[in-house]
Specification:
mainly alpha; 6 helices; globular
Length: 147
């Protein structure tokens, strides 16, 4: 019974918390999101490789800093693992969702939509992929690395 409650809470956090966090981030740094969207559209392969290198570097750095028995390094590694990596995940998903929302918005309405509308449309597409096991997770991983 506890597993079902935990899974329900996780799905609720993903469905409600992630879009709210994405909208908050877009409200705080809209120029960065627009600039990153432009870069993603112009050079998607380069964006994927940069995302892959950054993810590998910060995951490795967090593991290396958490493993020794030195308290200061554990704190820094924990900070990287708990704050920096989730921030990269949210920003990467935000940029990818904005690009997806922009394309879907152009197909549906034939006019340029606002950043908030792009984010909402993209989030509606990306969030269900998070809930689908294995295949959805792979799709989201690719979206994150590209974004």
């Amino acid at each position: 019974m506890a597993i079902k409650q935990n899974l329900g809470f996780l799905i609720l956090c993903i469905v409600l918390g992630l879009p709210a966090l994405m909208v908050l981030t877009a409200a705080l740094v809209p120029d960065y999101i627009i600039r990153a969207q432009t870069i993603l559209k112009k050079r998607p392969r380069r964006s994927f490789l940069v995302g892959l290198v950054n993810a590998a570097f910060f995951v490795a750095l967090a593991f290396v800093l958490v493993s020794p028995n030195i308290e200061a390094l554990n704190i820094i590694g924990g900070f990287i693992g708990v704050i920096v990596l989730p921030l990269f995940i949210v920003v990467g998903m935000l940029i990818a969702a904005a690009c997806i929302g922009e394309r879907i918005g152009l197909i549906c309405s034939k006019r340029q939509s606002t950043l908030l509308r792009q984010l909402l449309i993209g989030t509606v597409v990306v969030i269900p992929a998070l809930i689908v096991p294995i295949f959805g997770w792979l799709v989201v991983l690719i979206i994150l690395l590209i974004g």
